Amino acid sequence: MTINLTPKQIINYSCYPIDDTDDVKRRTTIEKVREQLADDGCAVIRDFFSKEGLQALLTEANERKADTYYSASKLCNVYLNDGDPKFPEDHPINVFIPRTNGFITADLFGDDTHSRQLYYWEPLKQFLCECLGKDELYIYEDPISNMIVNVSHSEQQFNWHFDTNEFTITMLLQPADSGGHFEYVPGLRSTEDECYDEVDKVLNGDRSRVKRLDLNAGDLQFFLGRFSLHKVTENLGDTDRLLLIMSFSEQPGMVGSMARVKSLYGKTTNAHKQATIRADGLVD
After folding, report:
1. What angle do CA 250, 104, 139 make, to 5 degrees?
2. What's the number of domains the chain is made of?
3. Is residue 88 part of a domain?
């Protein structure tokens, strides 16, 4: 029997009354998130979902898992592009490493799904906006990748990479039994400097700046992945790791680059052909 939940019922509302702007719990949560983000660009709200809400989101992901897209190319650089012949072969932009995870794309979630209703719930967007200390947040207009599920089967991984967006909101629906750890290097690059030398160090095994974050089912994570190199280690267990990813932007009309979306998700739309807005001049 299908249970229809409202967005307020999906989240752990008794702990996180995010639509009540006068509630002290809401204000305290926002302050804690801002402190964590200021420290290293990563913050976690534990047990963000109700038991029923988490199960509803997990069920929707599992129902669509058979349609997970796996890229034909299993080797990617950290910028998720095709590299650049202007640079040496051992330059970070031309170093390709295995990526074996897949994605359940946004277009597979209809308007009646809990996942999409939560994504478009205005109180959630406003809460996230305040947590991030932004003046305004907009729905990421990419019809393929604005709300996706990252799928990692046993022995699959998503190696080192940067994100298209400055920040990403992720919600762990189901962790791996073993492995599947989130690792990151805070603030490795900036809008002014790609910091290729620092990227090269990490790719060659330097873990002096690497951090590992342990996440549990139902946790909500804020991450400044545009500037922090990050990865999900190999799933060493038998349970699929399922991560719901919701993307927002500070500018209206933002979509992913055509090459990146095609490589990661296997399809593009007219929105990608017509896209002209880019947030910055980074390689990607």
Report:
1. 20
2. 1
3. yes
Residue 284 maps to a domain? no
CB 220 within 8 A of CB 169: yes
Mean pLDDT taken over the chain: 94
CA atoms within 13 A on the CB side of 37: 24
Show the domain range for 133: 7-274
Tally the residues of the chain.
284
Q: How far apart are CA 230 and CA 183, in angstroms?
A: 6
In a domain, residue 13? The reply is yes
**CA pair distance 68, 103, nearest whole angstrom:** 5
SS3 50: coil
- In sequence order, what are the residues at sequence separation of 6 or more whose Cβ sits closer than 8 angstroms to the Cβ of residue 69? 102, 103, 104, 105, 265, 266, 267
Residues 69-90: tens digit of each pLDDT: 998 778 999 998 889 999 999 9
pTM over 0.85, yes/no: yes
DSSP state letter for 107: G
DSSP symbol at 131 = H
For position 178, which CATH number holds?
Answer: 2.60.120.620
